Amino acid sequence: MAQVFPRSVHEAETCWYDTAGWPRWVDGLRRVVLIDPGWPQAGAEVVWESGPAGRGRVRERVVEHVPLAGQTVAVEDDSLKGRQVVSFDPADGGVEVTLAVEYAIKRRSPLTPVVDLLFVRRAMATSLTKTLARFGAELAESRQSGVG
Length: 148
Description:
Elements: E1 2-5, H1 9-17, H2 22-25, E2 29-35, E3 45-50, E4 57-66, E5 70-76, E6 80-91, E7 94-105, H3 112-144
Antiparallel strand pairs: 1-7, 2-3, 3-4, 4-5, 5-6, 6-7
Helix pairs in contact: 1-3
């Protein structure tokens, strides 16, 4: 999933890694619980909690961070384990932000592939779409307020 925003790579990256703003644009996130001092560098971790109908407690541990290019994090909650990749690429008139998640369902049964296909994948795609759209609104707001 990718979207182009009328900001620079630096501005988009700065906004993405600012965990104080996450509750405004990360879909399902209610509050950030823990931020390692090394965030967003490799090895650092952020722990956050969702609202009551969400994923519960989510851990994001940085696997790779390339300044002005992107970040890969290992993501885990009670139900899923996977990797999330965000990249920032210069684009005509701004920055292209690409967000992708690969995951595996932890508790498996014979019905897991069907549940994944019919429900989990759709929910993940919807969540990524909402997150990118809200992120774009956050970038626009930071420009209007002179932040970033």
